[in-house]
Amino acid sequence: MANESLVTIGVTCFNARETVSRALESAVAQDWPMLEIIVVDDRSTDGSAELVRNFIASDARVRLIEHRQNMGVGAARNTVLAYARGKFIVFFDDDDESLPSRVSEQVRVLTEHEAATGARLVACYAGGERRYPNNYRVDAPAIGMKGPPLVGPALAEYLLVFNRNPGWFYGAGVPACALLARRETFEAVHGFDSNQRRLEDVDFAVRLALCGGHFIGTPERLYIRHMTGGEEKLPEADLAAQSALAEKHRAYLEGIDRYQYALRWPRLRYWHFKRRYGRFTVEFLALLLRNPVAAVRHIFATGPARLVHEHKMRKRKPA
After folding, report:
1. What is the pLDDT of residue 319?
2. HSE-CB for 197 with a 13 A CA cutoff
3. The CATH number of the domain where 108 resides is what?
């Protein structure tokens, strides 16, 4: 690991005036000696860009790039990639904060894995914590932070239809806000899908897995993910994004006989979130008829934990 390697921190920003300063402060506080910080404002309407411009005046390492129209987070991440000069690129979200050692720890874990395995397509994820407005907190360990690295198409199958390898540790999945990789890794899969306004990070990971990529993580918890709302997180947006993801990877899914499953499971989730339990039952029965073992395993692996999680999210914030 060479300390002279430049690392690019990419911060995508949209209507985050109340939180982006926190993200930027954690970015400039990183203990890695060679940094550039690229903020891409995706046509905010709340004055976020002006706030970032004021911040830039105090730190020459930070650059602001403003989209002329709102293009979505996938496009914003690609703008970071287009302007980045770093050997490594790491993403911070505009409402999160990272510990000062995050970049250095992720680079260390990634380069040590490369040295030990000879792998060249490696995605390294930071462990973290999710915090909700009512102060409910969820541990978010990094994918691959223990056990063997997660390698190849089997991870794509997990991300698309939840087919788990019992020897792998999936942690908190593949959020882009926890991701660091070499520039060449992003280039190998042509970056993010600019048409994806949601799940662009899952799509990136699916494509990297299908290219034989390695997925590893830090044992340390290195960032705090503040769980905020927004139209892009509504059940309708989630269903549309999940459906688009299945359609995009239809050829692969049909090859493993899971295309219909990948379409129907998001509908099951949607009817649960809408509390339309009759429609939920119909979708689940359809899944059972086609893939009975997978459907039962999936519902028992995720259903109880989902119900507990939702209950805790609804609890009032302690006085």
Report:
1. 47
2. 15
3. 3.90.550.10
